[in-house]
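Batch manifest line 223
LIGAND: calcium ion
JOB: complex structure
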Amino acid sequence: IETALAEGPLTGRRVLVTSGPTHEPIDPVRYIANRSSGAQGTAIARALAVMGADVVFVTGPADAERPEGVHVVEVQTAAEMLQAVQAVLPVDAAVFAAAVADWRVASASDSKIKKDKGQIPSMEFAENPDILATVSQMTEGRPRLVVGFAAETDDVIANATAKRLRKGCDWIVANDVSPETGIMGGSENAVTLITEDGAESWPRMGKDEVAHQLAVRIAAALG
Ligand code: CTP
Ligand code: CA
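JOB STATUS: finished
ARTIFACT:
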């Protein structure tokens, strides 16, 4: 049992946050992954803890510092992340900020693939489990509030709105990660919160401030 950082509007609430990339091994020295600093997920975990929540932070291998006052679970792959998430349930709310690899190498090699064999390797991929969709569609023990993310480069609001319905989550935090926005790897974010009531675009602000505003909304939703 973790001690929350402070008394606040989320005292007594248990909240799960996923964050960072996942690494899907090709062989013992190589992997495929998404770009993710883990900065936004880390900020969200910290903001929830500051408001009194009992936070479990399930993170892939990210550079970001691990937040204080939260229970940290480190994983590598999407399969491990799903397992860790299922072990953490039940929770009051779950925020899925991780950039999970959509595919893994179907049969990763136990030994290092050598290039002096003279052949360029070809790889078969298998689809990873969708952790957000799995939790959103639970018929028993579903968190009361499930929040997903949608990092998009085109038609951000349309894609994210469709994603919310497809996955079955309550909210989607959408953002435009086109390189020219400088959001990936930066300290700021410009998000649109998509709920059943529609799309609400927030001004560009620091990732810490986005996290705080989101935590305020989560507290209000949990009552
Ligand atoms: N997500 C997840 N498990 C996966 C893939 C995604 O939990 N295997 C979650 C992410 O953490 C995020 C949300 O689903 O909260 C949306 O991820 P995204 O990659 O934008 O959606 P996809 O459905 O994978 O669609 P695509 O990558 O094709 O845009
Ligand atoms: Ca994806």
